[in-house]
Amino acid sequence: MTTDKGKYSASSIVVATGGASYKELGASDIGLKIAQDYGHKIIPFAPALVGLTLQPKEFWMKELSGISFPARIRVGEKTLEEDLLFAHKGISGPVVLSASLYWHKGEIAIDFCPDLKLDKLTQEKKLLSTALPLPKRFIKVFLDAIGLEDKPCNRLNAVEREKLARIQNYTMAPSGTFGLTKAEVCRGGIAASEIEIETLQSTKIKGLYFIGETVDVTGELGGYNFQWAFSSAVVCSSGIVNNYLK
Question: Is 234 in a helix, a strand, or coil?
């Protein structure tokens, strides 16, 4: 292998260069370039476990920067539930970060109040702003956004009840993500189908190994990506040792 420090030869080379997020730490896509040079199929890196930005019609959420509460997000067939955080750039928090792993483009659906029983709520005599178990600041801005007056729950007509139902099924299409500089990890990498599962050795080049985030394996929030990095290193090192012992 030729580097800017000279030429080196080895019977085994492990590419553990990570993903492209956090460039200030030296992160880059060099691992993918190495894989491509050896004929591997790659999936370009993209931000994952990252906040989502807003289309203009959802800019009302920017007024809520700093507010956080449990919510449920559906992306395609995947449903996730954890805290949602409103940020000045868009939406974030654990549930959004995990949702970003599955979102590519198109709509997501947010349930801002997963435990709410709408039928029971609409029998209440209290004002919506009092009866809804959510931060008052959120309720005010949300009601304005959907064009619903803050009135006694039991006085809502059919059209108003339909509007209120959006609190559990608010569909929106994010405009994008906060980008690589804010992403906790990257999705993409060397196609896992071109890596031996028992050793993480390339199926194309003997003695060439890829581990961690260089491989197209990405987990949700919760330590899964650290675990993959550690576990893939153990599997790879065991594979190299076993090859030497043969």
Answer: helix
Give residues with Cβ within 8 angstroms of 183, minimum separation 6: 21, 47, 48, 49, 50, 177
Q: What is the pTM of this model?
A: 0.89
Q: pLDDT by residue (tens digit) across 103-112?
A: 999 999 999 9
> In the chain, what is the straight-line distance between the N-terminal and C-terminal CA atoms, in Å?
25
Cβ neighbours for 174, distance < 8 A, ≥ 6 positions apart: 52, 53, 54, 55, 90, 91, 103, 108
Cβ within 8 Å of residue 243, ≥6 positions away = 12, 199
d(CA 226, CA 230): 6
Please give the Cα distance from 206 to 213 (Å, whole number). Answer: 20
